Amino acid sequence: MPMRLSLERPIVRAGICLLLTALASGQALAHGVAEGDKGFIETTSGPQIGPFLYLGAKHMVTGYDHLLFLFGVIFFLYRMKDVATYVTLFAIGHSTTLIAGVLIGTHVSPYLVDAIIGLSVVYKALDNLGAYRRWFGFQPNTKIAVLVFGLFHGLGLATKLQDFAMSGDGLVTNLIAFNVGVEIGQLLALTAILIAMGYWRRTASFARHAFAANVLLMTAGFVLFGMQMTGYFLEG
User: Fold this and answer.
1) Mean pLDDT confidence for 214-236
2) Pairs from 35-41 (Cβ < 8 Å, separation ≥ 24)
């Protein structure tokens, strides 16, 4: 027990430091694409399944907005069946707008889309805190909410990909490969989150800090929202 307690505080501190580092990383857009990756996307031609699988997975495991939302979604899910249901709904929404948004050429301000994604984190944190039942007397359908916010998460990346001069040769194949890579990255990230959550839930710290963790999650969502709205008014 003393060893377990001694490990809890460093884990909580590490989580807070990781969150603050991500939010202060200087990326105005959570869906920003590295310059090297941007150059590859714009110069490649024809089907490039392997590289686009890698780029998709890289995007997910470094996309802190996605990870924060997933963390909120699985926070109080204890059965793998429930985890699979919600993650599948999120993946369906994410995949639909990622592929369709690029192919159709839907033009939406990336700042506004990412602002909504920030609010999705706020929504899930408040949901975990039971705020809606206390404030409004009813519980919104969480499954529908996760699906809808999944649509916005996918649209967030689609808006960035549209800024690149992507070759039409192999475009559909590359988009599908990219999306599969995103889902692979999501599974990897989710596995790490579930392992960490599984350990935390077995400690007394979970019951003590669950409320504070979701308040911190909500705060992060508001910070993301504020960053995007600032970018929208200054640069949009």
Assistant:
1) 91
2) 38/164, 41/161, 41/164, 41/166
